[in-house]
Design goal:
mainly alpha; 2 domains; 3-stranded antiparallel sheet; 10 helices; globular; methyltransferase activity; transferase; methyltransferase; DNA methyltransferase
């Protein structure tokens, strides 16, 4: 089977057993659930999926060796499977996974040895990498077939996707119910934004604030905003000049770019841009 056919089969099997796990081992089941639902770091689940796809496509490889730099007969390029096949699969099925490869993250790049459980990967949360490596070892030592683990991984991701969509639908419905009510005062709006900025995982908000300002005032300024790229995607990969890109109305050349940082901007940031 080709990688595309493997992914199609995995998705169909996951959809058929969406509400019931096919993994009998509770320890492995807990590991999968943790890796898939770790919202603070999505690199683990994408690494896991890449290695499982490589193992299913080439059964003789070791899923713990997704680096050609290892130079052994059972090593392979996990990044190739990640970028060439998983990206399209993830986008097609709207799976809640990073839009870019896991192999360019600081923790997972420039590795030339197997991802064994005695390896201490420097990344947070620590348990994410620990459990991901344990799952790869489970497959390598034949404690669980690669296809079963892959089906379970996609199944949990599909459940998470549906849960997120249901939550969003509920929030939108609540907004519809408040339509026609008194608008918030300027002071209340500033308070809400300040509270949001003080929350954890709110780094996307400054981007949305600037984008919303241009949406509101763009016609008067004769300027328009380009569609926002993924918040987790590197500018070098997307080809963007910054988090928010502004064009003159009716044109597509960027005249203003905004880059949001949770720290003071340095000269190095400007040089890199």
């Amino acid at each position: 089977m080709t990688p595309e056919e493997i992914l199609q089969d995995i998705q169909q099997r996951a959809a058929a057993t969406l509400n019931a796990s096919i993994v009998t081992d509770p320890v492995i089941r807990e590991r999968v659930d943790y890796v898939c639902r770790c919202m603070g770091n999505r690199a683990g689940v994408r690494l896991l999926m890449s290695c499982l796809l490589g193992k299913l496509h080439k059964p003789n490889v070791d899923p713990r060796k997704p680096y050609t730099e290892i130079g052994e007969a059972d090593s392979f390029s996990g990044r190739t499977y990640d970028e060439h096949y998983l990206s399209r699969f993830i986008n097609e099925h709207r799976l809640p996974v990073n839009r870019t490869t896991a192999f360019l993250t600081p923790t997972l790049r420039n590795i030339d040895h197997a991802l064994t459980t005695d390896l201490e990967l420097v990344g947070r949360p620590r348990d994410l990498y620990k459990k991901t490596l344990e799952l790869l070892e489970d497959v390598a030592l034949q404690r669980i077939p690669a296809d079963v683990l892959f089906v379970e991984t996609v199944r949990v991701l599909m459940l998470l996707r549906d849960e997120n969509q249901a939550r969003m639908d509920s929030l939108l419905e609540a907004l519809d119910r408040t339509e026609g009510g008194l608008p918030l005062s300027s002071e209340a709006i500033v308070t809400l934004i300040s509270q949001h900025l003080a929350c954890r995982n709110a780094s996307r908000l400054p981007v949305l604030v600037v984008a919303a300002a241009y949406e509101a005032a763009g016609a008067r300024l004769s300027e328009s905003i380009l569609p926002l790229n993924s918040h987790n995607a590197a500018d070098l990969q997307t080809g963007s000049l910054g988090d928010v890109e502004i064009c003159l109305m009716g044109e597509d050349s960027v005249v203003t770019a905004y880059e949001m940082k949770m720290r003071r901007v340095t000269q190095d940031d400007i040089d890199a841009a």
